[in-house]
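[Meeting: bench + compute handoff]

Bench side (C.D.) handed over the final construct sequence. Compute side (W.E.) agreed to return the predicted structure before the next meeting so the bench team could plan truncations. Sequence as handed over:
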Amino acid sequence: MSDSRNDSKSNTSNNTPASVKTIDDFLLRAKEKTGIDDFGSNDFIEPLERLIAALNTEAQLSEVGKYQADLNIAKGLENRLKVEDYIRQHPDVLEQEINHPIFISGLPRTGTTALHHLLNVDPANHTLRLWEGNDPVPPPEDATYLTDPRIDKSKENVKLTEQFMPGFLKTHLLEAEAPDE
C-alpha cells in the first residue's frame, strides 16, 4: 500500500483534486502585476469562466497541474492587458497589413513543429519565436531583436519545462529563439 504523500500520481496529500483560482482572483492579479486595468472587450470572460469551471470540476488536476494552469491563465490575462494598452497607445498598429498569413494546424506528432521550423528558414517568412509569444509587448525592435532581454527570461522558462514535464524536450523542440506553435 502506498503512502499518498509519497505517491507522485496523487493529486494532493488527501487525494482531492487541486482547484485553480477564481476568475476574480486572476483578473485582480493581472491588473496588479501590470498596473493596467482595461482588458478591452469582455468577450473573453464567459469562455474563461467555463475553462476555470472545467479545470475545477472535470480536470482532476494535481498540484503541479493546478500550478501550470494558474500560470497559463495569469500570463494570458497579463498579456491581454499589455496588448490592449499597447493598441490604445499605438492605434496605428491596427492599420498594419499582414500579407498572405500561413496557418499551420494538425494533430500532435504529425509534423507541424517541423513544418513551422522549415518555414522559419525562409527569410521571406517571419515566424513567432517562443520569446515573442510569451511576452509580446512591446513588439521587438530590429536593433535589439537578437539581444532582447525577454530571450533570456524565455530560456529560463524552457529550462523549467524539463522539471515540470520530464522528457518533454526529447519529444518536442522547444527553444526560446525558435518558432513555437
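W.E. noted at the follow-up: The helical segments are 23-34, 45-57, 63-89, 112-121, 130-134, 149-164, 168-171. C.D. will use this when planning the next construct.
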